[in-house]
Amino acid sequence: MFEIILVLVLAYLLGSIPSGLIIGKVFYKTDIREHGSGNLGGTNTFRTLGVKAGLAVTLADILKGTLAASLPVLFQIDINPLLAGGFAVIGHTYPVFAGFRGGKAVATSGGVLLFCAPLMFVTVLIVFFLSLYITKYVSLSSMLAGICGVIYALIDWDIPLLIAVSLLTSFVIYRHRANIKRIANKTEPKIKWL
Asked: Residue 175's closest CA among 99, 93, 104?
């Protein structure tokens, strides 16, 4: 039991590493929480600091989820990697190292899928970029990618994966509730780099 708790705590702490805050402050002398949406995720980093910083933060946030999901395997603990990945997502969204103000769970959730269901990860990534190319909305594309993941797990009938992806997608949609209102009001910012 101690080992399980240790792995879940480590997963949460991994998720809590505030990539956007670190990259912003170290390389750009900027706290991205004071700009744009105030969010620590990749999208706000793209808008505030540019493409290079945005890509670095997004990649780091994906890798947090991947590494956290791999912890049960690395420690040879008999728990589903999806559970450890879920704790990283909570850490990313409510990071102990950044006053519990984090990102919106998209990239880190993707990182969990990268480890647990690589083919699903590739599928939702394709859906994300197709939607982004058509709509120019990162928020909408993130939610559609999550919904695609739920459909994928439903067709594959992988019950643990279906439960995990459904929870992650619901959480992503909940975190984007302000974006949904802005999309409806046609005030949501569109990307200009794609």
From this structure: 104
- Which residue type sits at 52? K
pTM of the model: 0.94
- Structural domain that includes position 113: 2-184
Q: Is residue 189 part of a domain?
A: no
Torsion of CA 52, 109, 83, 8, to 10 degrees: 30
Tokens representing 11 are 């997963």
**Is residue 192 scored above 90 in pLDDT?**
no
Q: How far apart are CA 29 and CA 141, in angstroms?
A: 30
Residue 193 has pLDDT above 80, yes or no: no
Q: Which is nearest to 10 in space by CA: 79, 64, 59?
A: 64
Is there a domain that residue 72 lies in? yes
Distance CA 67, CA 33 (A): 25
The count of structural domains within the chain is: 1
191 inside domain:
no
